[in-house]
Task: structure prediction
Amino acid sequence: MGVTGSTGPVMDRDEVDRALARLGAEHEAIETSLLALQDHAGRRLLEGAELTGVTRERWTSTEASITLLWTYFDAYTDALRIAREIRSRRRWSSHEDLVELTELLNGESVTVAGSATANAPTSHGAGNRLSERYSLVTLVDRMNELYATSLDMVVAADAVWSALPARIDLLAAELQRTRRLAHSVGVRPGEHPAGDDLERITRILAKLREQVVSDPLAFWQASEGSSAPGGGRPDTTVYDREARALEDVRREIDAVLTVRQDAEKRIVRLRDILSRADRTLAEARTARGEVLAKIAATEVPVVSGPPTVLQEQLATAAEYRRQAQWHRLSPLLESLEQKAEDELLRARESLTEVTAPLAVRAELRGRLDAYKAKVSRHGLAEDALLVERYEKARRMLWSAPCDLRAAEQAVLRYQQAAAELLGGPRVPDQGVPEDDRRGPGA
Result:
């Protein structure tokens, strides 16, 4: 370097050449970036769109930034051109040339009209001044800053437009297919909740698409901590929610379709279940009469009649099927199937409760005969006490009405006598009277 000038030491010829090469490379890179931004699909869409909301505000600011970018670039180009002309005057630049080049390359030598920076979002307090002066280095920094913010806005809007409208259109097409299918099975607004859901989804999707087209930045989520232009992703919260809602409706309609295909089979099965329940209840009523006639001193539960309400609902289901009202038939069949199974279970439990005394009598008869067979195998069938107690228990168990408590005591006494003769473990007395036990001279 040579002597010091107003901008510092005067640059020598090699320093000037290196600076011009660096500034030339920066100029080429900036020009390439600006042309790419100019041709960006997102920018062209923004220019032609009717914008609203935050996107309109951001685009107004971004348009001013892009205009200022080109203004800065033109000023930068002119300064670089002048510097190259000065350097090309002679092979060995004079001291005066080097002083001029140093001032041009290092000093605030670029003047930009104040009107060009008045509306810029990063004018750094330019205010209403007639002009602003910048060094080439400062000008490059300003252009990089404006380019990054402009590209960020353009990329974000383009990303939303590229992702959401197409997905909304696909979902809307699926929605229309679902609406037609719903109509074919009677799922209509005002008549079925799924029909109301389809109407609501239709309205929301139409509004969502309109908002996405006019205000894409309202559906953009910037990535925290990311400084790269366009760092973030489209916000699909509303879209995802309606997609899930449509899937729920589709499952509901599929269930209705299944009802349409299987309705007759399910109705026949319901008739069969209710018929079995009726037969079981009839059997329980018959058994109750038998128990009352054959078993003494026993509480026998009352058997209810057939469930007429379920029969009426089954008739309603058959009518829905004839009228192809599948959306009404679906929930009715599901309810009826559960109630019919419950009714059959109730009928079986009623039969079990009613016939319990007969089951006890049968168990006592079996036990008595089993012990008789056992003592016969040991040659004790003719024992007088055993014969007496056997005949007494048998008369009680095979007579009507049968006193189960007394019959059970008679069987226990027979078991006790048999156990004593066989030398096995003693049967518990179970309340057998003392004078009825075997003793001397019995």
